[in-house]
Amino acid sequence: MLSSQIISYLRTERTPLYLYDMDLLRRTLQSATAASAQYGYKVHYALKANFDPVIVDCIREYGFGTDCVSGNEVRYSIECGFDPSQVVYAGVGKTDEEIEFAVRQGIFAFNCESRQELQVINHIAGQVGTVANVALRLNPDVDPMTHTHISTGQADSKFGISYKEIDQLAAETGTLNNIRITGIHFHIGSQITEMRVFEYLCRRVNTLYEWFTDRGYELSHVNLGGGLGIDYDDPDNNPVPAFGEYFDIFARNLRVGSATEIHFELGRSLVGQCGEFISRVLFTKVNSAGKNVALLDGSMTELIRPALYQARHAIENLDGSGRPQAEYTIGGTVCESSDTFARNLSLPELQRGDLVSIKTAGAYGAAMASRYNMHDLPRAVYWEGE
Fold first, then answer.
1. Burial (CB count within 10 angstroms: exposed 0-12, middle 13-18, buried 19+), residue 386
2. What are the pLDDT digits (tens) for 146-192?
3. Model's pTM, two decimal places?
4. For 275-340, where are the alpha helices, taking DSSP H only?
């Protein structure tokens, strides 16, 4: 990845930092754009993955809309120049104030998560004096075969409207005069690498789409969410996800009306591989169990995924060329045992001051950073090819 090509520059920079390969980002966006355009699909960028303004501005240039999960994300999208007609407001819990703001902006649609939320949106839209567009987020009870913390489409999940409630929901929507049901929405999870999962999703969508259209609903769009996984283990050889295969699955398996738009919400797959987390070795030691430990100046406050999800990232010693291999526990500076990036990881011998790259950190890295232990928020470097 990029870091190994610009080591001399990185040695002059204060760490920890996020390094963004803008050329790779553009290649990824171009690939996603070309693959989705082949079928006329519309893509919204899931802003929660990375809301860095430089990254977001680049994404906007490629014509994507946004998928937002908070009122602040809706506001930020519009401030960044996205047309409200391309903004989708999802999120399992929307406050009244957030709903009112989005209603007044005339966004493309709310992805509604419950019958009660429908009632609240209807009430607020009535107060504003308008009709709000709503897509019903249905829980299809599909196992995404990914980490339990990022699975959202199973029956016992907090997300979405249970498919068991749709008869009652259909009976109620006719009395809600300030909302317009324009679509149905699904999102089953994140970092999905088993492509057959999306085939299962299509079968559930086909059934539910038919159920709604048979009852007179005119669905102008179906939103399939996102979830396409990326390669955390070998990012150097797989820097751009398989967008062609992903969209082709839906083209082959989805059965909806020809006038119905198909929408997606991609986040990780667009930005994950363009980012690296660069840190320096502060100290090395051997613990009482005889294990080599390397402590970095970065920590879970800047990159929480390994602590939160037990996520694995490829890690490289950028200064280790020619040194013998050794096994390490790689830890950070936070006073928590969970602040560990890897265990039993074989790397060229680490020494104080060595630069270390934690790869595939462009998604859910900086966006989830905190100031725990009063750490500074991580800085960013945006590298343009020469």
1. exposed
2. 444 333 444 455 556 776 677 777 777 778 999 999 999 998 887 89
3. 0.92
4. 305-309
- Within the chain, residue ranges assigned H as helices are 7-10, 22-37, 53-61, 71-79, 96-105, 115-128, 166-173, 196-214, 243-253, 268-271, 305-309
Q: Which residue has the tokens 């920890």?
A: 16
- Would you say how long the chain is, in residues? 386
What are the DSSP calls for 132-156, one per residue?
Answer: EEEEEEEE------S-GGGB--STT
Q: How far is Cα 165 from Cα 112, in angstroms, rounded to an integer?
A: 14
- Are the beta carbons of 48 and 367 closer than 8 angstroms? yes
pLDDT digits (tens, 9 = 90+) for 277-315: 999 999 999 999 999 999 999 999 999 999 998 899 999
How many Å apart are CA 154 and CA 140, to the nearest integer? 7
* Pairing status of strand 261-266 against strand 42-46: parallel
